[in-house]
Amino acid sequence: MDPLHIEFLPEGLRRPIFLLAFAGWNDAAESATLALRFLKQQWGGKRFASLDPEEFYHFGLTRPFVRFKAGSETEREITWPQNEFFVCQDEKLSRDVVVFLGIEPHLKWRAYCTAIFEVARRLEVTLVLSLGALLAEVPHTRPVRMTGLAYDAELAARLGIRPSRYEGPTGIIGVFVTRCREAGIPTASLWANVPHYVSGTENYKAGLALVRRVLTLLDDDRDLRELEEAAEGYDKQLNAIVKQNPKIAAYVRKLEARDQASAEPTPAEPSDLPPAADLVAEIERFLRQQPPGTPRE
């Protein structure tokens, strides 16, 4: 059975760009999916296709949710892992955008990527841009650092990314981008570097940074006040937590001292910093001990 379900196929698209983000390993602190959900909403995205999750997920690992149906207090429905395509034809945009929001699958990665690629092929997309986020030893007090890859130097400069020299295990983004590149479709990946010690909650600051880079590429000067306020509140709450805990504050100061604008952050360099797991556990323990009303993450 074909896992790709097409409700309608958009027609007459203007040099469409294909934007993708995947929840899971490629989405530290949910930064990439947060950014793309925000953009999809701003552009009035309309769903036109989806992927059946049956072939791609171990439901013992990514479980479906049960909830009450809208307007009912007795009847429930099951919500399965969602992989959806949206078309955005905002008149303020100089070109149309196709959005894919999905979840990194457990099974059949090549078949999964082929199904997504089929949509890109049919819609004749002119550029595939994936959004991701990775955990790194960077302080939350600095501007969000971006890394990534682009098919040419001009696009990389426009996105404001430094090329990554990473080698190692890859996620679904790496597999899909390779599939597109082999087919001759221009590709780029944009990754936000997220502080590893605040990985358990949505990072609005990183999400905002990704949104701004995408809008710059599309020459879209959209009002971002809502997301900017959320990012500012996120920073204030995190700073309040850091100030109240000397151990966390000392760790952040060490990260700040190490931070160099020309250096690419790495997730596991030998250093005199405490192990990441120790700091994450310390922050989580500290948050649980706060009285009601204390600023939280």
Task: Give me a quick take on this structure.
This protein is α/β, with parallel strands linked by helices. It has helices spanning 31-42, 109-122, 153-159, 172-182, 204-217, 225-244, 246-258, 276-288; strands spanning 4-6, 17-23, 46-51, 65-68, 76-79, 84-88, 97-103, 127-136, 146-150, 162-163, 187-195.
Major sheet description = 9 strands, mixed
Name the CATH class of the largest domain. Answer: Alpha Beta
Order of helices and strands: EEHEEEEEHEEHEHEHHHH
Q: Considering the protein shown, what is the CATH homologous superfamily of the largest domain? A: PAC-like subunit
- The N- to C-terminal Cα distance equals 44 Å
Tell me the domain tally: 2
Protein topology:
Elements: E1 4-6, E2 17-23, H1 31-42, E3 46-51, E4 65-68, E5 76-79, E6 84-88, E7 97-103, H2 109-122, E8 127-136, E9 146-150, H3 153-159, E10 162-163, H4 172-182, E11 187-195, H5 204-217, H6 225-244, H7 246-258, H8 276-288
Parallel strand pairs: 2-7, 2-8, 8-11, 9-10
Antiparallel strand pairs: 1-3, 3-6, 4-5, 6-7, 9-11
Explain how this protein is built.
- By secondary structure, the protein is α/β, with parallel strands linked by helices.
- The protein has two domains: 4-224, PAC-like subunit (Rossmann fold), CATH 3.40.50.10900; 231-288, no CATH class.
- Helix content is 35%, strand content 21%.
- It is built from eight helices and eleven strands.
- A nine-stranded mixed beta sheet has the order 1-3-6-7-2-8-11-9-10, sandwiched between helices.
- A hairpin with a 7-residue loop joins β4 and β5.
- The longest helix is centred in the last third of the chain and has 20 residues, at 225-244.
- The N and C termini lie far apart (44 Å).
